[in-house]
Design goal:
5 helices; two-stranded antiparallel ribbon; five-stranded mixed sheet; single chain; alpha+beta
């Protein structure tokens, strides 16, 4: 069972890399109806080992959502980037305070996804700057993940925004 899951994740990763290569090469995108809740679950499953080894608790709240028109693997890559960033941002807070909240909902006919962490949050001056290519707040970061994520979402008619929660954690949210 573990081997089958590893094979599945490897194939998914290969598909993501192929789609990202196509995206960078500006070949045609494969937009199709995508179940956003399944994309969220896939990303959390893909990162489950990193999440648990980091001592992060996950709160997942999904509402029934209509399919969105997007490239499924690219949308999954966006979720992986957002969740990975959230988990890494919480490394500076005590383990008992590490909470990742992911939610989906429909508002005014658009599907909204929120990824919230309980880390230190983003300085106000960086809330837009984090989407600039090669800007990073990580010592080992390349500064491409959020820029690529925003570009993927914009190509699908969406947006990606960043802010802080009232409890000082960061919140990234997008709608399609």
């Amino acid at each position: 069972e573990a081997l089958a899951e590893a094979v599945s994740q490897t194939r998914r990763a290969a598909g993501i890399l192929e789609r990202l290569r196509a995206f960078v090469g500006r070949r045609s995108l494969q937009f199709e109806p995508v179940a956003i809740n399944q994309v969220v679950v896939n990303a959390l499953t893909l990162l489950s080992s990193k999440i648990s080894s980091s001592g992060v608790r996950v709160s997942l709240r999904t509402e029934p959502c209509p399919p969105v028109q997007a490239d499924a693997l690219q949308l999954e890559q966006v979720m992986v980037n957002l969740v990975r960033n959230a988990v890494e941002a919480m490394q500076a807070v005590p383990v008992e305070s590490r909470l990742l909240q992911v939610s989906t909902q429909v508002v005014a006919g658009r599907v909204h996804v929120r990824v919230t962490d309980s880390g230190p949050g983003l300085p106000e001056s960086q809330q837009e700057q984090v989407f600039t290519r090669f800007f990073t707040t990580k010592s080992d970061g390349m500064g491409l993940g959020l820029s690529i994520s925003r570009t993927i979402l914009e190509a699908a008619g969406g947006d990606l925004l960043a802010g802080n929660t009232t409890d000082a954690g960061a919140c990234f949210h997008f709608s399609l």
